[in-house]
Design goal:
The protein is α+β, with helices and mostly antiparallel strands and 269 residues long. It is built from six helices and eight strands, in the order H-H-E-E-H-E-E-E-H-E-H-H-E-E. The strands form two sheets. It has a four-stranded mixed sheet with strand order 1-4-3-5. The N and C termini lie far apart (68 Å). Belongs to the UPF0145 family.
Length: 269
């Protein structure tokens, strides 16, 4: 998997491998997170990242559809594939380190001065290795990835669950422009705008369904820490990206049951 990594990245990561002459880990975990990850039975190996600079093409809205709600599929595919490229390269760096997973993953995007439609997508996190061998890799034989904090990661492991992968779904949606008569007719009134309600509802549902499909492909039991974000980036007020993202998880044992603490009542004086 190293063929898609920069030579400088490969050299840096090889110097961090546990069998290197002077092994040294790097991490963006806070001190508390670092200690909790260690207490959960994992040791940091190194900071890993992936990047993808992507030209996001413009898909014009035909005049007849200017007043219709519709997904802008070209932009949806661009935003998804760009993040996927960044994630794949981050996973490749973790694989080169011999990591079992990556914790504290952040997905960021930045617009640069290369052009109005050129965006850099960055995935970064801390590669970790389990102290004890276990089924930590997912069913695609890839290191697990998770955007959980060090505290949440510790809690998840202590509860008998393992992260599988950061899963996401996205939808770029054009929200219909209202006709002038409808705008004027609602002046001074408190009233729902059904076409806007339906557009935002549909777009979020598409993003959620795509995230769930990724988790099902991994045979996950569920998704934790789900975040729903909305951005319009530079497309204007009527075109927005809806992003659903979370960590797919599974129990470490098929017969696992979370033990609930017993409630202890105070004795009557």
């Amino acid at each position: 998997m190293t063929h898609d990594l920069a030579a400088a990245a490969v050299e840096r990561l090889r110097s961090l491998r546990p069998n290197a002459d002077t092994p040294l880990f790097t991490s963006d975990l806070s001190v508390n997170e670092f200690l909790l990850v260690r207490e959960a039975g994992f040791r940091p190996l190194g900071l890993v990242l992936g990047t993808s600079i992507y030209h996001v093409g413009i898909q014009g809205i035909q005049l007849g559809r200017w007043s219709k709600n519709m997904e802008v599929t070209q932009l949806t595919e661009a935003m998804y594939h760009a993040r996927e490229h960044a994630m794949t390269r981050m996973e490749a760096e973790a694989d080169l380190l011999g990591a079992d997973g990556v914790v504290g993953v952040r997905l960021e995007l930045e617009f640069h001065e290369f052009g109005d439609n050129i965006v850099e997508f960055v995935a970064v996190g801390t590669a970790v290795k389990a102290e004890e061998p276990g089924p930590w890799r997912n069913n695609k034989n890839q290191p697990f990835t998770s955007d959980l904090s060090g505290q949440d990661f510790w809690t998840l492991i202590r509860a008998g669950y393992a992260p599988l992968s950061l899963v996401m779904g996205t939808c770029v949606y054009h929200v219909a422009h209202r006709r002038l008569g409808a705008v004027l007719g609602n002046l001074g009134q408190n009233i729902e705008i059904p076409e806007y309600t339906q557009a935002l509802y549909d777009a979020r549902e598409l993003a959620m369904a795509r995230m769930q499909a990724e988790a099902q492909e991994l045979e996950a039991e569920g998704i934790v820490g789900v975040v729903l974000d909305t951005h319009n980036h530079r497309w204007g007020s009527h075109t927005m990206e809806f992003l659903a993202i979370g960590t797919a998880v599974r129990p470490l044992r098929p017969d696992h049951i979370i033990e609930r603490p017993q409630l202890v009542l105070p004795l009557d004086g």
